[in-house]
Design a protein that fits this description.
- With 350 residues, the protein is of the alpha+beta class.
- The protein folds into two domains: 63 residues, RNA-binding S4 domain (Structural Genomics Hypothetical 15.5 Kd Protein In mrcA-pckA Intergenic Region, Chain A); 248 residues, Pseudouridine synthase, CATH 3.30.2350.10.
- It is built from seven helices and 17 strands.
- The strands form four sheets. Strands 7, 8, 9, 10, 11, 14, 15, 16 and 17 form a nine-stranded mixed beta sheet that branches. A four-stranded antiparallel beta sheet has the order 1-6-3-4. It has a two-stranded antiparallel sheet with strand order 2-5.
- The relative contact order is 0.13.
Length: 350
């Protein structure tokens, strides 16, 4: 929703309307003070310290809305925006020989099982090494979706650190038909998520508008009342209980950015090790050092949010028959479940 959306906000700067925003970076928590020119060199491809210093001198680097000098030392949660006189350039998709885990392919569609850590499409800071770069290499002339330009074949996306199924269109027929199904919400998608806490009931529904957080545009938030955000509905049911955490299945009725992650946080059950929505802290359990070490070991085992796009079903664009696909959990997700099962079993014996 950098987000099921990997695309940062690209609106023009409100303070300097003649400039265009090219990058937006939020300094990570726990970052020690570091000169901004040195910090940005490690975050922006093909940048040099001299170019960054010149950008500072031209008031093109803003921190929390104000221009800074190159000697400014970044602090955790600083929001850095780089603005330039020219519009943001369109992405050139560079074909790259990156392996793709294809679980189904015919003349119209490809079903890919995306591993965690793979960015779906090029964006600022990720010009290469994405699934789209891989698709451009393996398949020629994939169609363009007008609403997702420069991302050939894509009709939807999942977050960089979410694993699981994606459907890609190979023809204009498939692109148009699948885009229509997503718009009409007839696509059936189920996710598996390991979340903090136990549930009083076996199933439930979360409803609440989702929009960008008013203070931090990198993340999303739920707005239960009012007109802000977009309507979002997530259905969930318990699959397996481990006491302090629970494995659930989520069915999307809508497809908003970070929908499951923000909805689960909203009801007090953040996804395990989701660093953007509070799941990377020990939220449930005992105060024993042994337990804390156990959870830390789990975090190391799955260094991402424990979320997997497990199934997808839709009407095939050519045959008009309903088809359905499912994928196994990624190895890191499966390993952390095994670890929690063992812990829960031993705890129940005490």
């Amino acid at each position: 929703m950098k987000t099921e959306s990997d695309i940062p906000d690209t609106s023009e700067s409100s303070e300097q309307e003649e400039l265009y925003e090219h990058y937006r970076i939020t300094v990570e928590k726990g970052k020690t003070p570091l000169r901004i020119d040195k910090y940005l060199m490690s975050r922006i491809e093909n940048s040099s310290r001299n170019r960054l210093q010149n950008a500072c001198d031209a008031d093109c680097i803003l921190v929390n809305g104000k221009p800074v000098r190159s000697s400014y030392k970044v602090k955790p949660s600083d929001e850095i925006v780089i603005v330039l006189p020219e519009p943001v350039r369109e992405f050139e998709v560079i074909p790259q020989n990156i392996p793709i885990d294809i679980i189904f392919e015919d003349e119209d569609i490809i079903i890919v099982n995306k591993p965690p850590g793979l960015v779906v499409h090029p964006a600022y800071g990720h010009y290469s090494g994405t699934l789209v770069n891989a698709l451009a290499y393996h398949f020629q002339n994939l169609p363009q979706n007008p609403t997702m330009m420069h991302r050939p074949g894509l009709v939807h996306r999942i977050d960089k650190n979410t694993s699981g199924l994606l459907v890609i269109a190979k023809t204009e027929l498939a692109m148009n038909a699948l885009a229509k199904e997503f718009f009409e919400r007839t696509i059936h998608r189920n996710y598996l998520a390991l979340v903090w806490g136990d549930f009083k009931t076996e199933s439930g529904t979360v409803t609440g508008n989702i929009g960008r957080n008013l203070k931090d545009r990198k993340v999303m938030d739920v707005f239960p009342d009012g007109d802000y955000g977009k309507h979002a509905v997530t259905h969930y049911e318990v699959v397996e209980r481990f006491g302090y955490v629970t494995l659930i299945k989520c069915k999307l009725e809508t497809g908003r950015t970070h929908q499951i992650r923000v909805h689960m946080k909203h009801i007090g059950h953040p996804i395990f090790n989701d660093n953007e929505y509070g799941g990377d802290k020990i939220l449930k359990g005992t105060t024993f050092t042994k337990y804390k070490q156990f959870v830390e070991n789990c975090f190391e085992m799955i260094p991402r949010q424990a979320l997997h796009a497990a199934t997808i079903g839709f009407i095939h664009p050519r045959s008009r028959k309903e088809i359905f696909f499912e994928s196994k959990l990624a190895p890191d997700f499966e390993a952390v479940l095994t670890k929690w099962r063992k812990y829960s079993t031993e705890r129940n014996k005490e």
